Amino acid sequence: MKFTKMHGAGNDYVYVNCFEEQLPQDIPALARAVSDRHTGIGGDGLILICPSEQGDARMRMFNADGSESEMCGNGIRCVAKYVFDHDIARKEELKIETGAGVLTLQVFAEDGLANRVRVNMGKPILNGPDIPTTLEGAPPLKAPLEVGGKTLEVTCVSMGNPHCITFVDEVTDEWVHGIGPQIEVHPAFPNRVNAEFIQIVSRSEMIMRVWERGSGETQACGTGACASAVAAVLNGLTDRTVLCHLPGGDLTLEWAETGEVYMTGPATEVFHGEWTS
Question: Annotated catalytic residue: which of 78, 156, 164, 221?
Answer without folding.
Answer: 221
